[in-house]
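User: My collaborator sent over this chain with a note saying "see what the structure looks like." That's all I know about it. Can you take a look?
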Amino acid sequence: MSSSPDLHDLIQSIDEQLVQASDGSEAISSLLETKQEEMIRYILVGIGALHLAISIDNLAEVSPLPPLTFLPNLPFWIQGIVNIRSEVVSVVDFGGFLNLDKGTTCNGNRLAVLRYKKRKVGLRLDRIIGTVHRGASEQTPLDNVEVGTVDTSLFGSGLRIEKNFFYILNVQRFLTAPRLIDYNRVG
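Assistant: Without extra context I'll predict from the sequence alone. Here is the result:
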């Protein structure tokens, strides 16, 4: 009968060791997770001569360009509106929005619908190049790149993929830009 308390103590000791071991493995697992870099998935697109990387988390959809309805008295860079499942979405010529030369004007037949909170805007695309997964360590700061005439206020950094440089579009900054929100008041 005296073996029962010893067995109970032995089981309790094993349970305590298991708890300590699992706490240690959680700490090790947590440490490994912090050392792994978060990977972001991007869609790579072309608008004229401009190459963009857009986080897939900021996309509502990518599709063929639906029939475009032109509206009068809009800035030249708003190409019109489209109906996507009973939702009206403005379509923007991004090269025109950035005031880039005519080589960056887009007349493609693809559409990327960007989203931030409840706001959605479509970017007309000439081509979809592909998708990539990249971490923050693979991003190139714009001060390390010759950006030419590109207004970098909508881009935080870029990705060098093969021989091309893709500007990473800050969708939140673009969709909240005063020029986009209130184009009648802002020049």
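A starting point for your reply to your collaborator: Residues 39-181 form a domain with the OB fold (Dihydrolipoamide Acetyltransferase, E2P) fold (CATH 2.40.50.180).
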